[in-house]
Amino acid sequence: MAIKYGRPIELREVARSSGAVASPALDLTVRPRRNRKAEWARRMVRENVLTTDDLIWPLFLIDGNNKREQVASMPGVDRLSVDQAVREAERAVKLTIPCIALFPYTDPSLRDEEGSEATNPDNLVCQAVRAIKKEFPDLGILCDVALDPFTSHGHDGLITDGKILNDETVAVLVRQALVQAEAGCDIIAPSDMMDGRVAAIREGLDHAGLLDVQIMAYAAKYASAFYGPFRDAIGSAKTLVGDKRTYQMDSANTDEALREVELDIAEGADMVMVKPGMPYLDVVRRVKDTFAMPTFAYQVSGEYAMIAAAANNGWLDGDRAMMESLLAFKRAGADGVLSYFAPKAAEKIRAQ
Ligand SMILES: NCC(=O)CCC(=O)O
Ligand SMILES: [Mg+2]
């Protein structure tokens, strides 16, 4: 190492203040704490900053009017009727959050084996997109593409004899993407993890003349326990049969994440995502370093619930844990974060 830490023995004792305890000064030339001595000094050397531009706010939708229903496992998060979602969209605009994401709680009577409601051009998501775009055309809207909010079995794809049918599912996902894009959605975000869906969706969008609709691929989505509260929110927790490990990734792998991301980029993804977030920051870093693509992370429902629950119990300073967890994504190389904390974090950033 080039740095020399020592200094001549005769200089060691000279800088002691009179009030110092009687112990010899350490022989240190380099003292990293100097750069942390005051808030202005810390700001000067700060390497990463979280801004409102880094936030994407996921919202849950429910049928009805003037309705807000608490999601029990996500304190502070509600399911919203379309008119209420428009009000939250207004809040996003005022907070300068660039983009929201929409997730429907589909009425159980509309769920079936094939997830047909996903391709209904007048489903809850499409209604919300149209209503929000009408009032706030400059707010970005991201829509998930996957069948789980619409299927009676809670899986993201079509099933026969307990097996997910990849290619048949992709054909349905293209139609789902098209109804959402035609309603005015700006970013199509396939979260299903079927092989080949990004290419098929890109081709479908281009064929329909929807050349400007972006694709944010949930490229590396892991089979995770942290999705629990989300399934509660969209009402698939009780109906889900089995697990999703034949399509979502094994949490032990990171090389596989790079292969998944590489494929989605080759198939036309404009942006890629890693999900969940906090337990997979190593994956975020590798993806960003390897591909230099716009890279996003999803701080999922379970991550939100952990912090919110601990804060509600007085075990954590909720605001500080929220900001620290969001900054961690920036440090890992993410360009942005989907987080249920988005409005709260944006309020805090703007108050600073
Ligand atoms: N496709 C979107 C999700 O699965 C969200 C998961 C979560 O927030 O737990
Ligand atoms: Mg894939």
Features:
alpha/beta, eight-stranded parallel β-barrel, lyase, binds magnesium ion, porphyrin biosynthesis, 352 residues, 12 strands, TIM Barrel, porphobilinogen synthase activity, heme biosynthesis, binds 5-azanyl-4-oxidanylidene-pentanoic acid
What does this protein structure show overall?
Belongs to the ALAD family. It is an enzyme of class 4 (lyase). Keywords: Heme biosynthesis, Lyase, Magnesium, Metal-binding, Porphyrin biosynthesis. Pathway: Porphyrin-containing compound metabolism; protoporphyrin-IX biosynthesis; coproporphyrinogen-III from 5-aminolevulinate: step 1/4. With 352 residues, this protein is an alpha/beta fold. It has a single domain (52-351), classed as Aldolase class I (TIM Barrel), CATH 3.20.20.70. It is built from eleven helices and twelve strands. The protein has helices spanning 39-45, 82-94, 124-135, 166-183, 197-207, 228-234, 255-266, 281-291, 301-312, 318-331, 342-351; strands at residues 55-61, 68-70, 78-80, 99-104, 140-145, 159-160, 163-164, 187-190, 214-221, 271-275, 295-299, 336-339. Strands 1-4-5-8-9-10-11-12 form an eight-stranded parallel beta barrel, surrounded by nine helices. A two-stranded antiparallel sheet has the order 6-7. Strand 10 (271-275), helix 8 (281-291) and strand 11 form a beta-alpha-beta unit. Helix 7 (255-266) packs across helix 8. It is globular. The model has no long low-confidence stretch (mean pLDDT 95). It binds 5-azanyl-4-oxidanylidene-pentanoic acid and magnesium ion (MG). 5-azanyl-4-oxidanylidene-pentanoic acid binds at residues 144, 146, 191, 227, 230, 300-302.
